[in-house]
Amino acid sequence: SSYIQRPPGMGFIHLVFYKISPELYPILHKLFALFLHALALYFFGLMALELLGQRGAIFAQLAYALLPCFWGYLFYYLTESITPSFMVFLFYGYVKYHLWSSSRWLIFQAFIGGILIMIRPQLICFIFPFIYFMIHFLKNKNFKKWSVFTVVLLLAFGGFISWQIRSATIAKRFTGLHG
Known about the structure:
mainly alpha
């Protein structure tokens, strides 16, 4: 049943807006999706500026803002309306960590990755670079960074693992990744 198969992320978002105003929750959801898209557009521009320079960033940001493949799903009430924004946030965190090697970007990535997995569990593959980094740091005997990555992975996968345990307990079997 969808009660145990569906990931809880989008249901939680709907619940928050429904609790704020049962009459206005569809409008609040749309405003939230538009806000996330605008924020993603800003972060996409910053990421493109870091990678492509000013001219390339302007072109990339215009493409992101104007092409329907990036904003066409904003009108859905499903995960499609907010998933692209969280993907941009996650990639922005990857770029910032690659450029600055700061632990705060790892925590940012873990937080965004955890939200992304709870909304669209199939996108778990975008969290796998963390595992690569852990192996790399372990091979280089950088245990401080390895321990930070362990905490980050626990943050990113904590909600997902608890959701899977809950689903398996109710269904008496592993339900897998549904979304």
